[in-house]
Amino acid sequence: MPIRNLWSLEPGECIVAEEILKNLRGVEVYFPVRDVGVDLLVVKGSKHVGIQVKESRYYTNYRWKSGHIGHSWHKVRWDKLVKDKDRVSFYVFITYLPSVKGHKIGFFENRFLVVPTAELERRLEVKKIRGRNMYCFCFHFEGEHVYDEGTTVDIIDERADYSRFLDAWHLIAQALE
């Protein structure tokens, strides 16, 4: 049985766990010892939700047809999404967004999209498939607005607009009520 190296957890998983504990009261966060299809398990009383974490840096040198410049790049395998959808209640996409001060990057801001798996699956109908069995999410951040540039629709389509999932920790809290 393969066991995860618990002494070198993925940074994004640790950052998301910390953010969950900061934003939700009365919950515990657990890391599975082996790969069971979820990265984090959030528990409150007798209820629990599985979280899949996808992390990406922000690429600042690409101009989209929409005119937007910049995006993150998160990959989700279709077979994993289907196989694990009973275990994974939410996908948390974390993007490390550079903050420019003067002429250089001063620090990175963590931006979180908390998306229910059912909602993510609904939006896959407009996704561009990259390679075999792979969906890419290319999130462009514009203030409090977030658009997935890797779709087959315009950014005005609600399926490409992820703004309502920005820091939506309340969705996890509601699932645990």
Task: Describe what you observe in this structure.
- The protein is of the alpha+beta class and 177 residues long.
- Helix content is 19%, strand content 40%.
- The protein has a single domain, classed as Trna Endonuclease, Chain: A, domain 1.
- It contains four helices and ten strands.
- It starts with 10 loop residues before the first helix and ends with a helix.
- The model has no long low-confidence stretch (mean pLDDT 86).
What overall form do the CA principal axes indicate? globular
CATH class: Alpha Beta
Report the C-alpha radius of gyration, rounded. 16 Å
Q: State the secondary-structure class.
A: alpha+beta
SS strand fraction: 35-45%
Look up the CATH topology. Trna Endonuclease, Chain: A, domain 1
The percent of residues in helical segments reads 10-25%
The overall pLDDT, averaged over residues, is 86
The N- and C-terminal alpha carbons lie at a distance of: 34 Å
In DSSP terms (H or I, runs of 4 or more residues), the helix count works out at 4
CATH architecture assignment: 3-Layer(aba) Sandwich
The oligomeric status of these chains comes to single chain
Order of helices and strands: HEEEEEHEEHEEEH
Q: What number of structural domains do the residues give? A: 1
Largest sheet: 6 strands, mixed
What is the number of beta strands? 10
- Give the low-confidence spans: none
Task: Provide a concise account of the structure shown.
The protein has a single domain (11-175), classed as Trna Endonuclease, Chain: A, domain 1, CATH 3.40.1350. It is built from 4 helices and 10 strands, in the order H-E-E-E-E-E-H-E-E-H-E-E-E-H.
